Amino acid sequence: MADSVAIEHEASHPALQHHFENLEQQREAGTLGMWVFLVTEIMFFGAMFFAYTLYRTKYPAAFASASNHLSLPLGAINTAVLIFSSFTMALAVYSAQTGKRRNQIVCLALTILLGLTFLAIKAVEYHDKYVDHLIPGRLIPGRPFDASGVHLLPGAARQNVEMFYWIYFAMTGMHAVHMIIGVGLLSVILFFSARGKYGPEYHNPVEISGLYWHFVDIIWIFLFPLLYLLGRHLEHGG
After folding, report:
1. Residues 168-176: contacts with CB within 8 Å, 24+ apart?
2. Domain 26-235: which topology?
3. pLDDT digits (tens, 9 = 90+) for 4-27
């Protein structure tokens, strides 16, 4: 009897779309859809990781030279920022599942703030590359790479150093675009959370937004060592 009452209550829930029988079916469909989307994103980023691996293997000295010009402190801070943002996002999902509305709002706001912090730090890094004339494609006339603060290791060629920066801006730029989308998505979720839309019965949008956010964070966990650490390891012959 209790089960039938619960099912009937779910069937009349305002968040239930007409083509689903109940909220559980709608939740499963939404989660599956997000996982399918993330698989396509893995293939998208996988192509760039493959290009990075190919050229890094072919031009190790040039890539090591360029890597050492990246700011390790800023990269490390951004890594810590995103790891903590995944924690606050997980707390937001848990708060939605348990009906803790205030905690849910606070955690979502903190996650958005951390995402904006990451983007601000990345903007500082991009500005430094602009000042040092390290924009690929010769968009900025000025000094050559070997006179712009990049110490060329033996065997490193200028054009191969430039290839590193093509890949660096492509990978971190696309990651930043995904971060911007994530911040926008969480801002919408925060708006509806403040209106009390999500709770123990209906919280799937918070969950699938969390999946997206964790995915973007994981991508950076791979980018940080490949772009920032591996070159320093090569330079010191470790």
Report:
1. 168/66, 168/70, 168/227, 169/135, 169/136, 170/48, 171/45, 171/48, 171/49, 171/52, 171/223, 171/227, 172/122, 172/223, 172/227, 174/44, 174/45, 174/48, 175/216, 175/219, 175/220, 175/223, 176/119, 176/122
2. Four Helix Bundle (Hemerythrin (Met), subunit A) (1.20.120)
3. 444 444 555 555 554 555 556 666
